[in-house]
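Onboarding guide, step 5: your first structure request.
Type a short instruction followed by the sequence, for example:

Predict the 3D structure of this protein.
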Amino acid sequence: MIDRRKLLATGALLPFVLVGCGGKDASGNEPPSIKLGRDACDRCGMIISEERFASGIVDEKGNAETFDDPGEMVATIQEEGLNGRTAWVHGYPSMKWIHAEDAVYVVAKEAQTPMGTGVVPFDTNDDATAFATEKKGVVYTWDELLQNWKMESMMGTNRA
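The system replies with structure tokens like these:
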């Protein structure tokens, strides 16, 4: 026979257990979950191994597309649009997930990114400006990057 006290104690904890097991955020307000060294980029298939450049797009159901290079994510958004999805990048130097629209970007030929796009997200304009000066790059806001940057320009000899 089940002890009544144990049953009541278990029942009292159930709401906390259910909240803890909530799974993916259904609003796109959580960044994608990426297992570095195991998950592959949804655009090129390369294993995502550098946290600094890992990025992603999350829809309202919590489904994510993940990328090993922010430039690949930008190119995907340019082709498909966001369509209600939220884009995420790792800001530098904090390495924290931030909304892509809140980051400041540097595009530089001398920036070594996984796929050679040269797109690097930063937490602040000051950090981006210092990096752009060092690497002879150009500073962009999110909107400017989406409107003016093309991945093909970085893959050839005509880089920023």
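Each response can be followed by summary notes, for example: The radius of gyration is 20 Å.
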